[in-house]
Design a protein that fits this description.
The protein is built from six helices and six strands; from the N terminus they run E-H-E-H-E-H-E-H-E-H-E-H. It has 186 residues and is of the alpha/beta class.
């Protein structure tokens, strides 16, 4: 399969890129190779004929724009979109990352609205998965030392699990994070 991954040179994106690259033709889209996700049309034009789009990198509302572009083109095709979200989607987490939280929540709500409406109409062919990742050891949260963070490889393995399902199986939402009792014991 041909897979596109945004933000493929650090953290979760790099873990996904490396893992899926062992079995698939994976192309990365990051600043390091000349791409700017704030110009989503360029990434979409280059990746629209791929089989899978991993919507990982986040900047302003670019992740939402990328989802919208791929969804509009792919929803009636046997393709797969995986959005890397955040546990900040849940208001109970009381995350303090401002616009990051708002953008992740908007992405999650848009995906839910688009996919559930299409599913109820029986005309959706594109599988969409939202991975809601808890605190993961990335540059964004490296300064936080108050709890154990997941290894990005855990998120990558869960992305692989979701895309390895048969085409008629859709894991719409998968939330993963360290269990508090286990995380505090280490």
């Amino acid at each position: 399969m041909k897979i596109a991954v945004t933000g493929h040179t650090k953290g979760i994106g790099q873990a996904i890129y490396d893992l899926l690259g062992q079995e698939h033709d994976v192309i990365g889209y990051s600043r390091s190779n000349g791409y700017n996700i704030n110009k989503p049309e360029i990434i979409f034009e280059e990746a629209k004929d791929f089989d899978i789009f991993i919507n990982n990198a986040q900047s302003k509302d670019a992740q939402l724009q990328l989802f919208n572009l791929f969804w509009q083109d792919w929803r009636y095709k046997e393709k797969t979109i995986v959005n890397i979200g955040s546990s900040s989607y849940y208001p109970e987490t009381k995350s303090k990352f401002g616009s990051y939280v708002i953008n992740k929540q908007e992405l999650h709500n848009r995906v839910k609205q688009a996919c559930l409406t299409s599913m109820n109409n029986g005309n959706q062919k594109c599988r969409v998965t939202n991975i809601i990742a808890g605190w993961t050891d990335t540059d964004m949260v490296k300064m936080l030392r108050i709890f154990k963070k997941m290894d990005p490889q855990i998120v990558a393995k869960n992305v692989k699990y979701c895309i390895d399902q048969p085409q008629d199986i859709q894991i719409f939402e998968l939330a993963i994070w360290h269990h508090p009792m286990k995380a505090n014991l280490r």
